[in-house]
Amino acid sequence: MSQSVDDAPDLSGLIELSRIEHLDLKPVILRVQTDLFVQAAQRDRAATEAFEALACGLIPTVDDETAGIVARKLAPFAGTPEAVLARLAARGGAVRDIVVARAARLTPAVIEAARRDGTEIGPALAARADISRSTMQDLAGRHDSEIDRALAANTQVPLRGETLARLVARARSAPDLARTLLARPDLEAGEVVPLYLHAEAERRAAIADAVAHTAALRPCPPPPSEAGALLTGLSAARDVPGFVAALAECLGLPGNFLAAAPDPALRYELLTLALRAADLREEEAVYVFLTLNEGVARSAERVFELVRLFRTTPRPAARDLLSAILDAPLRERSGGADAHQPYHAPDAKPRQAAERAPARPALPGRVRKTS
Fold first, then answer.
1. Considering the chain, what is the average pLDDT of its residues?
2. What pLDDT band is residue 248 in, cutting at 50, 70 and 90?
3. What are the residue boundaries of the structural domains of the chain, listed by start?
4. Contact indicator for 357, 229 with CB cutoff of 8 Å
5. Which of 94, 101, 170, 320 is 20 to 30 Å from 111 at the Cα level?
6. CA-to-CA distance for 304 and 64, rounded, in angstroms?
7. Which secondary-structure segment (H or E) carries 145?
């Protein structure tokens, strides 16, 4: 049987006790009454109104820690009076965010109280488990880094479509956001390709494998002519600006494309993908690793890592990875003797040997330093 008005607990004594000077029992009273209210098997209107009156009177007076503890218990509880949630939200700060993110029902009155101090509540909204797709799109369209991170961290709702595309695009230059997206278990490797450089080794391998499968289905344009001879010559001269400019020109990329690496230490991964996309031979790539940068050449482990990346990445996949990482299409070359020739029928004529590109010249020799 539910409690009657006459049976409702008399809380006046607790309220009077809380007013005793030098004896601050308000946090204890609020926490105890919150537990009793939430755990009650039944509660009628009188009990609810009594708790509402007590809570609304004490919430503005307690410390932030107590308010936060109470908010975590009351926000997701469907029976919490709207006025209590509004009073908690009006405190602002972390308490407001708890209410906005966890409230079982986010009513206009609670939202108005949360916005009273003019603070953006987007990050807290983005953390809600019941956030709608349209609201996610609206929040993602605000270009707010805190909202982006909250959306990426909210694994209670799926990231799809325009919202995911916007977050991934911004994550190229935001390592924290990129790591949060890459940590989501619901995103496939093919959905986070632009974040390849931010990924750990295992995730990179999955991304590269996904790209390789799709890239293999399309014809790959012929490689730039004589790129190997040009680039190894510039590397031998340790002309880094000239080397980067020539490599960018070969692929139709911006001259500063290496700056897209989130960490300067990762620029050689980007450079390795570019060398593979330019169709250098493995020995030519190794020569670049050993001559272009002395710091890289001195680390056998680093050279082996780069060679492994070069060796395990097919040229079509390297092109697609570069394009996704840089958000820029690579130059497409068509026509000429090396253009793609589809196989039409058994009587299709094969290319003649004379049509093949001339062999690349031998690599320039390295001068051994003597003491």
1. 85
2. very high
3. 12-119, 121-187, 192-334+357-371
4. no
5. 170
6. 54
7. helix 145-153
